[in-house]
Structures are given as structure tokens and as C-alpha cells.
Amino acid sequence: MSEPVIRTEELNYIYPNKTAALEGISIDIPRGKKVVLLGPNGAGKSTLFLHFNGILKPSSGKVFFGGTEIGYGKKSLEQLRSKVALVMQNPDDQIFSATIEEDVAFGPMNMGLSREEVERRVDEALDQVGMADLRTKPTQQLSFGQRKRVSLAGAIAMHPEVLIMDEPTAGLDSRMVHELLELADELNQQGLTVVMSTHDVETAYSWGDEVRVLNRGRLIYSGDSDGFFVDGQRARNIGITEPILYDLNRTMCRRNEKAPAPFPKNVFELNQKFGQHAKVLGQLYYLPSDALDQTSIQEVRHRMPHAAIGLLGTKARRIGCNLNLQVEHRFDAYDEALIEVGQGRDFVLVGDTSWKDEVERRLALLNSTYGTEMRLKIFA
Ligand code: ADP
Question: In CATH, what class is 4-238?
């Protein structure tokens, strides 16, 4: 196994008021993965994150980045924070500038980048979080969800190796949660390690490659999400309920005398495992987002009048919104595509190239796990 991007050794932290927030934490964050830090309120998640980019210094124990113990001098911390970006739970702890663009530019400017490069990064980051139109707007006038997006843009603009988000989905509506998780996927596809804390088990279960569980300042589990819930009592003891898909799988396995693995992570997979296997699946097509405009959508409608269309990823969604394209699915298009195809309907996924590769990777895994024969055809 390669060296974890972040690792701690016997980390203890006691706040000045004598609260022992972290006790003996030896945790690893594998490079290039999507990692969820799960735990009830007060478990120590935020305190741990503040150690990952050196805002807090351990009372005892060590923190490593890329195999090297982190230093707490000004230079070392600056370097660390350009590689490990932390998005705090409350955006008001992070937004200080008068306008959105100034706020997003703050980190890159402090890194000593040229004006042009800062500009480029601000443009790109605001685009990714869907705030490009509002760049000159005063930060004082933003809604909670918009402030969250701005603080995320500030972190992305640093081009970090690790993006850490503390409770990023808290307080967002479900549409924004889908957007956020999709953006996190995109950043991960580009090579970032993405770490997020949550007490939302459904997200932890279906999104994370790896799960770490904290309770009362101690690390009680490291592994994949299925492994944690195998011991249902352990989860319930710390007030974490089982994810619905996990629960359904277990109940249906009992009834059908099937083995618990594989663990379905979406409705389509659950259906493949237990439902009547659909004999005729619809066909999944991919249309590059570069080719997306009114004409290409009309062409799809003309040639496949019964197909559904879904926008996958920030770029496709942005183009779709700008052109006000009429499509069936603007959010959660991958899962929606599986459901529709499972019911025999053709589906056109519109996304950029990194999404094409990702969908092919997911389908290959799906086919080998569930015996399906899903293929992605280029719409041409
Ligand atoms: P989580 O992020 O999992 O909700 P926190 O890291 O915020 O947990 O808190 C862990 C423990 O540390 C809790 O007991 C909390 O009350 C305490 N704590 C957090 N911040 C402070 C602080 N600034 N001063 C004193 N105690 C704190």
C-alpha cells in the first residue's frame, strides 16, 4: 500500500478548558480516495480536521503529511495549507472579504501566484461551484448555501492535494447535496483526496470509498463502509442508525437466503440483487458536454423520442442551465440513468470526458459484481 497522504500517530488533544477532545488517534487517510469521517456530534471530527492542516497542534502525538511529520513554523504551515485545504462547517468562520471574488482570490494570492493565475483560478473555482455570475456580489448579501459555496471555491482555488470538508452537507437542500457530492466526485477524479465529515449515514454509506468512525475522541473503526455496519450493535451504541440500503439488503438476504455481500449502494444494484432481473435493459449513451447545445438535444429527441436525458457534472449542468435546456434529469443523473435503463428506457448521459471514464469504470464494476451487461455507447 502506498503511503497515506495524511496520517496521525497517537494524537491527543486537550482544549485549554481541559476538555480531552482527541485520545490516542492513529488514523490514515489513503491518497486519492473519498474518505468519510463519521461520528455523532462532539465526537472530535472538527478538532481532528484542525490538526490535519496545522491550525491546532497536538497536545501529544504526531501528524504526518506525505510521510513527513508536519512542522509548525510559518513557512511549513503555509506550505501545508496550500496542499491541505479545509472547508469549515460554518462558512462565516472562513469568509472575510467584501466580495466573492476577493474572498476566493485570498488563498491563491497569499501563495504568491501571478495576477493572471489567481484570476484563472478564481474563474475556474467559481464556475465549479456555480457562482460565476455573482462574483462581484458582496459576501454580506449571500444566503447560507451560497456562503458555503464561496468557502468551498476558496479551498478549490488553492489547487490542494487534499480537500477536507467539515459537515459540508449540513443545512443544504437535497439538490445542493447532490451538486456537492458530484463536485466532490469530479475533484476526486482529477486526483484529489477528498475527506468529509458527516453524521449522515446515507451519504457515508453510498459515497465514501473508506470510512473512519470517531466516538468520544477515539477512533473506533477504519475500513470500508460495509464493514462498520456489519456490527449493527456497535453503530447503534454510538447513536448511528443503519443506512436504509444496508438495512434493506440484510432483511432481504434473510428472506431470500442470500449472502449479505455484495452490498448494494443504490436502488439499481438492490434491484439487480433481489428483483426480477430485467431481461431487456435500455441502452446508456454518452454525449460529450462540449457538444451540448439546443441542436444536439433536438437531435437526441428526434432520433430517440423515448430516451431520457441527464446532465452529469458541473460543466454539463452549467451549459444546460445557461441554455435552459429541457432535460429529464439535472441532478443525480448517474443513479437516475441506472434506474431508467433498468426499466428498459434508453438514457443519454451528458458529461465531460472525466465523467465518461468514471461511468465506464463504475459500469465495469457493476457488471462484474452483479452480472449485468451495461455498456456505455457514444451518441454519434
Ligand atoms: P464534532 O466535530 O465531532 O462535533 P468537535 O471536534 O467539535 O466534535 O468537539 C469535540 C469535543 O471538544 C467536544 O466535547 C466539544 O465540546 C469540545 N470542543 C470543541 N471545540 C472546543 C473549544 N474551542 N474549546 C473547548 N472545547 C471544545
Answer: alpha beta
